[in-house]
Specification:
Radius of gyration: 20 Å
Shape: globular
Strand order of the largest sheet: 4-9-8-6-7-5
Number of domains: 1
Helix content: 10-25%
Number of strands: 13
Order of helices and strands: HEEEEEEEEEEHEEE
Number of helices: 2
Strand content: 35-45%
Largest sheet: 6 strands, mixed
Structural class: alpha+beta
Length: 191
């Protein structure tokens, strides 16, 4: 095989890889369910990535005493599936699963921190545990590039609580989420 053929095959290989990534995200955007998620403020800074916002969602901290879990025992890096119910367009936690649920809207995430609790009897003796009390979860949608000059403005609005900063995501039938747009005071930010 000549060097020229190897060069062209290498280019075709990389083009196929990049096209696959784009097609994967486009598939989710075209076939998924649109959900709005509420954000919480976080303080990012990265000079090398351009103008972007780091997003932390209300669903990033799951209190298992408030949200039903099919199994309350989770560890770091476990895959979870959070079933969502829609309330006025917003995705609200319904139940946490270890495997993808059937016939439910859900988002796939990874446990990044577990806060444990133990069951004790009236004498203070541990009878069961530890079981997961609270989970910190990442969904792969924690940063978003915004128009130049808008990143600091959006983050300051999140911190000040003046404007609701929400995120419109599309979730496909496999629980994969893709950010469609950012909403500030209910209005989409133009890209």
């Amino acid at each position: 095989m000549t060097q020229k053929k190897i060069f062209y095959l290498t280019i075709v290989f990389w083009l196929l890889i990049f096209s696959g990534f784009i097609a994967y995200k486009e598939y989710t955007l075209m076939t998924g369910t649109e959900v709005i998620l509420k954000t919480e403020p976080v303080d990012p800074r990265d000079l090398f990535r351009g103008d972007y916002v780091t997003l932390n969602y209300e669903i990033s901290a799951l209190d298992l005493e408030e949200i039903q879990a099919a199994d309350p025992y989770f560890e770091y890096n476990d895959r979870i599936y959070l079933a969502l119910e829609l309330e006025d367009g917003y995705g609200v936690p319904k139940k946490v699963y270890r495997t993808s649920p059937d016939n439910e809207l859900y988002i796939k995430g990874t446990v990044k921190e577990v806060i444990y609790d133990w069951e004790t009897d009236e004498d203070g003796i541990t009878t069961e545990g530890p079981y997961s009390k609270e989970l910190r979860v990442k969904y792969g949608i924690e940063s978003y590039f915004v128009p130049e000059g808008r990143g600091i403005e959006i983050e300051s609005q999140q911190w000040a609580g003046r404007a609701g900063v929400d995120v419109k995501v599309v979730v496909d039938k496999y629980g994969n989420a893709v950010i469609k747009s950012l909403l500030v005071e209910g209005k989409e930010i133009e890209i």
